[in-house]
UniProtKB/TrEMBL annotation:
Coiled coil: none annotated. Pfam families: NB-ARC, TIR, WHD_ROQ1. This is TIR domain-containing protein. It comes from Lactuca saligna (Willowleaf lettuce). InterPro entries: Apaf_helical (IPR042197), Disease_R_plants (IPR044974), NB-ARC (IPR002182), P-loop_NTPase (IPR027417), TIR_dom (IPR000157), Toll_tir_struct_dom_sf (IPR035897), WH_DNA-bd_sf (IPR036390), WHD_ROQ1-like (IPR058192). Transmembrane segments: none annotated. Gene3D superfamilies: Helical domain of apoptotic protease-activating factors, P-loop containing nucleotide triphosphate hydrolases, Toll/interleukin-1 receptor homology (TIR) domain. Residues 18-224 form the TIR domain. GO terms for molecular function: ADP binding. Keywords: Leucine-rich repeat, NAD, Plant defense, Repeat. It comes from the Eukaryota. One of its GO terms (biological process) is signal transduction.
Amino acid sequence: MASSSSSPSAPAFSSQSWKYHVFLSFRGEDTRRNFVDHLYSALEQQGIYTYKDEETLPRGKSIGPSLMKAIEESQIAVIIFSENYADSSWCLDELAYIMKCKDTKSQIIIPIFYGVDPSDVRKQKRKYGEAFAKHELENKKKAKSWGQAVTEDLWGWLFNPREQNRKYREAFAKHELENKTKVESWRKALVDASNLSGWEPKHVANGHESRVIKEIVDTISHRLQLVPLSANKNLVGMAARMQRLKLELQIGSGGVRMIGIWGVGGGGKTTLASSIYDEISSNFDGCCFVKNIREKSSKNGLVSLQKKLISGVLKQKEVQELERVEEGRRMIIDRLCHRKVFIVLDDVDKLDQLEALAGSHEWFGEGSRIIITTRDEHVLNANRVDVKHNISLLNNDEAIKLFRKHARRDYTSMEEYEQLIKEVVSYAGGLPLALAVLGSFLCDKNINEWRSALARLKEIPNDNIVETLKISFDGLTKVERELFLDIACFFRGREKDEAMEILEACGFHPVIGVKVLIQKALITISKDGHFEMHDLVQEMGHHIVRGERPNNPEKHSRVWKEEDVAKICDIDATKELDNIEAIIMVFRFQPAKNQEQDLHSVVAYMKNLRYIESFGDPAKSLFNDIPLRELCCLILFSGSQNQLWEGCKLLPSLKLLRICDMYNLIMTPDFNGLPNLERFRV
């Protein structure tokens, strides 16, 4: 409260320029030598840097610039309303300025009602009413004394008496208006502050002051962790994304709103939610950021998350009596349905998690806002959120800026790095996670190491990036995983309808599966109707197929590269190739007879082959004698042969046969050996 004495010089904190963690506003004669002294000591013991006035200002004196500066530079203001707080115009000036900082600097306000009822503060009753009556009377007396002083019968020179009288009247009218306005601003500040969620020590821990202080300190410590001193305003590309999210949240409007942020892993969903949380959480009666729900629900169960949510919002120790999810639901509704809360549920991947933590808008009080981050759009559809916010990846300029930030070097003067930076940014495709990981990895490397690292990335993706993206893949069913891998290996960039026909023939029933992949942000459909996916998502799919044996394509389930087909042809033809389910074969020239025989022999051992796509002229013997009993789909492009195979070819599982650009064909194949053929496309 005093402008001259405070704690020792503060450490340098954040880019937000907070000098103090906490500013204590209190009436010295009521609380300085008891409650405030104990609270200050407890805060200091926890390493919470606190401003506490050590002097008493004479009655009626206004707060000075240094005290106003201390208020501005404090992250949290703790206001201790005591019996005689409103007697002091100094305290009221201090309060009014604190409430102004709440609006202009997002300062967190924690009121404590020490020996007074919040309704007395809010409505200025009892001692608070008496204090305001006294302030109003004093202002009138002050104005009257000023008037008497200037009308004393003193001898002096008189210049332009009419003009002087007019100016004095105007000045006194202005003083009276200013005094009235100041009192009204005090009233408003009291109302606003007393409406915030606060503490009544007499109703906490049976009034035991030491326990009350411990809980208050725990709450302040928790709030300081939730709102980091290192502000997020310098995050690349965040300002525009935060602005869009704020518009969707409709802060200040009525009702309860639930906003879902969804998109690919590593796309910045949690960062965006965290940034908006840091900025606006202090405007609510309670708040909680529940992190890593997918992981924590799997390890510790839903009840532990319900306990964290309740204790976080209510600023209490963890609820111990909860044992079942249904009990947790009832407690959340009972405790939070009348509170204006701000909650972030981070990394939700199953509907039961939302049903346990935020099952309905009606669970929360008027003005509440709930943000849900997820990789799966379906979770948001089922929970009926108000807005689905699809996370947007970084544009090229933002990507370069983020990469440079993590690389932590000035490359502007090194032209040789510029092309490599462009290659990294192109590889990352606007994915913040990839840019951050690669920037940190390359930050201390020289130009030759950069080149080597980029060459290796094209063959072997970064483990951290793959593992983050793979979380979405791991959440798929077995059929959905197989469907995704087929699209990643064979159908990216292909027309959707064409690919769907092939996938249907392979038994995937892809309509529902493709929808799931879209909802999990693993694939998209382009405007012209083609399958698309992020480069790194496709690379993750390739990495899964190659597994621990990237150099042994005969062990892979899918083969799509010409060089891998060539490697397979070089292996011992007596080996079984049961793993291979799908293959693309390209014949760019008329193969020699021994090469024909190699391919024929190799394919003969692919007992589980369900899909073949062949470009060019395969040997006729490739389809004549090989027992392809599991083959469901055969696609042949641009061959020059005049018939597909001789005689009756037994393909008992074949459902789709497609022939494209084979202009020399003079006859259709014998269909007698194709009992399950459903579609023949020419």
